[in-house]
Design a protein that fits this description.
With about 210 residues, the chain is of the alpha+beta class. The chain has eight helices and four strands; from the N terminus they run βαβαββαααααα. The protein has a four-stranded mixed β-sheet with strand order 2-1-3-4, with helices on one face. α4 packs across α5 and α4 packs parallel to α6.
């Protein structure tokens, strides 16, 4: 059987927390390479050899390094396919699954960053997300149809969106509608999420940091 042990390059309370949650959801065999952002370890020569962008998450599996959040989610969910968190090729849900994973990185996050920085997007034709209201309307419509991004099926895409909607609503960048509230609360209550966040709090404490509320 192929060795499926994963090394996650991780800093607590960062984007890599989502990958930690996904590994817990998958019941994956993994180890952590902890980075202390307070000591700027993400910019060390050793880590830049892993990811020249100096960002987390990054994973190593079977000698190969994978970076970029969405690529990591696709990779891990397919590696542990028996856990059912990724519709396989040929499944009618595979397309929507990939769509919502990629939509996060190509549309949602750029729009959120522009909104948080109070920047006007480019013209509709040149903006990667068109305009904020159209982008957000697409997400809200999907959430309202729920209970998950693919309807009745929980997938790796919900790990990404559960985290994203949690922090964006807490910062007032996305309205906490009843549908969004239900979605976030259901995600937060999942055992894998609770386990990963508890571990993250312990790791943050070990680095002398305070976990977010």
């Amino acid at each position: 059987m192929t060795d499926r042990r994963i090394t996650l390059f991780h800093a607590p309370n960062t984007r890599s927390t989502g990958t930690l949650i996904l590994l817990e959801e998958l019941g994956a065999d993994y180890e952590l390479e902890l980075l202390d952002f307070g000591r700027n370890e993400q910019r060390s020569p050793g880590y830049l050899a892993v990811n020249p962008m100096g960002k987390v998450p990054a994973i190593r599996h079977a000698g190969a390094v994978v970076t970029e959040q969405v690529a990591i989610y696709v990779y891990l969910a397919d590696l542990y396919a028996e856990r059912g968190l990724a519709p396989p090729p040929g499944d009618p849900l595979r397309g929507p699954y990939l769509r919502w994973l990629v939509f996060y990185g190509t549309c949602f996050e750029p729009a959120i960053v522009d909104r948080s920085q109070k920047r006007e997007p480019g013209s509709f034709a040149s903006s990667p997300y068109g305009d904020y209201d159209t982008m957000l309307g697409a997400v809200m419509q999907r959430i309202e149809q729920g209970p998950y991004m693919l309807g009745e099926r929980f997938t790796a895409a919900d790990v990404l969106w559960g985290i994203a909607l949690g922090w964006t609503t807490s910062w007032g960048l996305v309205p906490r509608t009843p549908a969004v509230q239900r979605y976030v609360e259901a995600f937060d209550a999942r055992p894998a999420v609770i386990r990963a966040r508890s571990r993250d709090a312990e790791l943050a404490a070990s680095l002398g940091k305070v976990a977010p509320p």
